[in-house]
Task: structure prediction
Amino acid sequence: PVGTDGDRTGEFLLVASPGSCSHAQPPPANQVVHVRAPQPLAGTAQYTPATVRGTLRVEPHASLVFLIDGEREINSTYAMHHAVVTLHLPAGR
Result:
């Protein structure tokens, strides 16, 4: 997540490998999509599988991501605004 409001987030970085931004060297900017959903999503977590649909645009951006041990700037080459996000939560959630 790039920004959160409690347990809700409407803006996040989509990467191929979970945790690649926070636990290791971030991927190259051309492998990162800056996603904005029209409504914040509840109950999301960094490792929640999701399907994201929308128009992919070339829009370089630098996001400041807050981590447990500080903050890190992560660059993205692509953006998706007004994305339709479907979370794939485990049964019972």
About this structure: The two ends are 20 Å apart (CA to CA). Strands lie at 3-5, 8-14, 33-42, 50-53, 57-67, 70-80, 84-87. DSSP finds no helices and seven strands in the chain.
